[in-house]
């Protein structure tokens, strides 16, 4: 098969989970004997446009491209510059002639993409993996008005009320506009049952959404201290530092533990690109208050994860929104590390409370601090949870499930209707 893979960025430019999963699957399709082309969208944050074409190289590889798509209406998820976008996309489609198009995100490309695919290639199979809630939520796709208040789109009436400048008719038209374009997609995939159920409640047909978990590339697990008698006191955070990822909650919890003179270490891995200045100022102050127990170790590359994971005993994922399938949880599980995480969304599916990790209340520094203190002082708890950590599926096995879906095989049974 010829498989065209779209994502809203490239891991070399922005190390997000969706981009990473998309590129890994594109490579797995090639290893399975199929021809795949990865196309990542970009804008002025990472690249300037080149005259004459929307396409740019990202590496010496001939199977990865960037498409400059900097004219984009984020509220409607719409491609504004169709006069430039459509001819270049048509040229790509007519030259590559894919049998399958696997969409991982429509940001920057626009919701018009599936309709354009169908017009240019009437027989192409279009599959879209739903990694988050951007289609539903105009508030940056988080389905939260604040860390303590869920989006009204999840309740009766179904309309977002997080954007005061958006009138009810704007939101209704946005929803109708996006749903109309998504109707062109043949099948959707959700990496978690929680995300699937949210989209069914929003109105996507239940029979068109399958559940396929994200996979991870094969790796050799790094050694852990599960077999030793020393207390488990080293916690690790991996990922971008953003308000919705809960880094403030984690640092506030660390401050409480430091005040109680608990002997612990928290290693924070990740940068804070494109974040609000006030947020950066707040976390800078928290890092100063929690030193030296908390070490701010900065951004990292995907190939560094194993080495960074080695000194860590517990991985903490304190997100305050409905995460779908956080990559960091799968990375921790690859290396046998139990995870302490907010007990909501896909996080609660990926980590079983008291079995292979621990749940805490979302956006509650006290709850997190108590759980971290318990974890640090209980060697037997650590051993039991670490022994139960489940290795995530390999990228190769997940790619086989997708290939079965592309070919119409029944190797990936549908989830039951909500």
Task: Note down, in words, how this protein is organized.
With 418 residues, the protein is α/β, with parallel strands linked by helices. The chain has two domains: 2-215 and 394-406, Rossmann fold (3-Layer(aba) Sandwich); 234-388, Glycogen Phosphorylase B (Rossmann fold, 3-Layer(aba) Sandwich), CATH 3.40.50. Helices cover 35% and strands 18% of the residues. It contains 13 helices and 18 strands. The protein has helices at residues 17-31, 82-96, 112-120, 168-182, 193-202, 247-259, 277-290, 305-309, 327-334, 345-350, 365-377, 379-388, 395-406; strands at 2-7, 35-42, 55-57, 64-68, 72-73, 78-79, 100-103, 125-129, 144-146, 149-150, 187-190, 209-211, 234-238, 265-269, 294-298, 314-317, 339-342, 357-360. The chain has an eight-stranded mixed sheet, with helices on both faces. α5 links the parallel β11 (187-190) and β12. α6 crosses α11. The protein is globular. The model is unreliable at 410-418 (pLDDT under 50). InterPro entries: Glyco_trans_4-like_N, Glycosyltransferase_grp1. This is Glycosyltransferase family 4 protein. It holds the Pfam family Glyco_transf_4.
């Amino acid at each position: 098969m010829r498989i065209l893979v779209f994502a809203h960025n490239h891991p070399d430019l922005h190390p997000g989970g969706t981009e990473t999963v998309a590129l890994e699957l594109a490579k797995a399709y090639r290893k399975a004997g199929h021809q795949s082309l990865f196309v990542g969208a970009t804008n002025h944050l990472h690249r300037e446009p080149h005259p004459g074409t929307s396409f740019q190289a990202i590496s010496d590889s001939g199977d990865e491209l960037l498409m400059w798509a900097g004219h984009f209406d984020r509220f409607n998820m719409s491609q504004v510059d169709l006069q430039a976008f459509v001819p270049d996309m048509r040229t790509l489609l007519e030259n590559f002639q894919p049998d399958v198009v696997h969409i991982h995100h429509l940001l920057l490309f626009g919701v018009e993409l599936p309709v354009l695919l169908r017009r240019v290639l009437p027989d192409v199979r279009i599959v879209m993996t739903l990694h988050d809630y951007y289609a539903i939520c105009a508030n940056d796709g988080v389905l939260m008005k604040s860390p303590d208040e869920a989006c009204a789109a999840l309740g009766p009436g179904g309309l977002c009320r997080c954007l005061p400048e958006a009138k009810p008719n704007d939101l209704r038209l946005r929803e109708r506009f996006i749903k109309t374009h998504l109707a062109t997609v043949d099948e959707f995939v959700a990496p978690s049952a929680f995300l699937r159920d949210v989209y069914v409640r929003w109105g996507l047909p239940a029979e068109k959404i399958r559940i396929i978990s994200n996979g991870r590339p094969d790796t050799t697990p790094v050694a852990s201290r599960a077999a030793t008698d020393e207390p488990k006191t080293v916690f690790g955070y991996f990922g971008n530092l953003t308000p919705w990822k809960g880094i403030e909650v984690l640092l506030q919890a660390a401050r409480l533990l430091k005040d109680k003179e608990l002997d612990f270490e928290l290693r924070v891995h990740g940068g804070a690109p494109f974040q609000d200045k006030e947020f950066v100022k707040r976390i800078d102050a928290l890092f100063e208050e929690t030193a030296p127990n908390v070490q701010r170790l900065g951004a990292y590359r995907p190939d560094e994860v194993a080495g960074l994971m080695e000194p860590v005993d517990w991985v903490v994922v304190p997100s305050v929104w409905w995460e779908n399938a956080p990559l960091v949880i799968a990375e921790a599980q690859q290396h046998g590390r139990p995870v302490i995480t907010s007990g909501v969304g896909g996080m609660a599916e990926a980590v079983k409370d008291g079995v292979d990790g621990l749940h805490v209340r979302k956006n509650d520094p006290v709850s997190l601090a108590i759980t971290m203190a318990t974890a640090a002082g209980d060697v037997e708890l650590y051993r039991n949870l670490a022994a139960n950590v489940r290795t995530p599926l390999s990228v190769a096995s997940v790619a086989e499930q997708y290939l079965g879906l592309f070919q119409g095989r029944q190797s990936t049974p549908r989830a039951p209707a909500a």
